Amino acid sequence: MIDIDWESLRNISPRSAYNILADHYGNYVYAIVLRNIGRIGTNEDIEDCVSDIFVELLSSAESYSSAKGSVKSYIGTIASRRSVDTFRRLSRNAERLAESDSDISELIESADRTDDAAETKIMSERLRESISRLNSKDREIIVRQYYFGQPTAEIAQALSMNTDAVQKRSVRARRKLHKMLEGG
């Protein structure tokens, strides 16, 4: 590709200069941008960056001099710098998005834990209420068995009952509790 005369670009309209630059160096600039932000940017991000580079080239046309190097190397330098800046910006945005996704996940988990805790509390209250409606012997058997973890033989001895009677009362009491908790 032959370098274009930068001086001639200064003497034509900005739109014409933009079109000439894009025609001659569009693929070159696109390749640089794609290399630098293609992994993280969308097609739109790439196209925006390419357009920004050509606008920057036109706005900085006065600072270019052929003594500094070829037009192609000048364009390549600006394209590299601008695309790296775009990569950094996109990376920061991706990090913020990941953080906000994490925050949202934490809120959802917190809400789930709150819902679970509320449901557990409601069930505990319903269970206590249902146990309180049992007759005193059945209530004492259930409390000793499930709240204090006492074995059947120990409960039988404490209540002056035989173990078979404690087991039968426990089974009947659990059936009653099940019906009460189901709404029956």
Defining key terms:
184 residues, mainly alpha, Rna Polymerase Sigma Factor, Chain: A, Arc Repressor Mutant, subunit A, 2 domains, 7 helices, rod-shaped
SSE blueprint:
Blueprint: H1 6-10, H2 14-37, H3 43-59, H4 71-132, H5 136-147, H6 152-158, H7 163-182
Helix pairs in contact: 2-3, 2-4, 3-4, 5-7, 6-7
Structure description:
The protein contains seven helices and no strands. The chain is 80% helix and 0% strand. Helix 5 packs across helix 7 (163-182) and helix 6 (152-158) crosses helix 7 (163-182). The protein has 184 residues and is mainly α. It folds into two domains: 6-100, RNA polymerase sigma factor, region 2, helix turn helix motif (Rna Polymerase Sigma Factor, Chain: A, Orthogonal Bundle); 133-182, Arc Repressor Mutant, subunit A (Orthogonal Bundle), CATH 1.10.10.10.
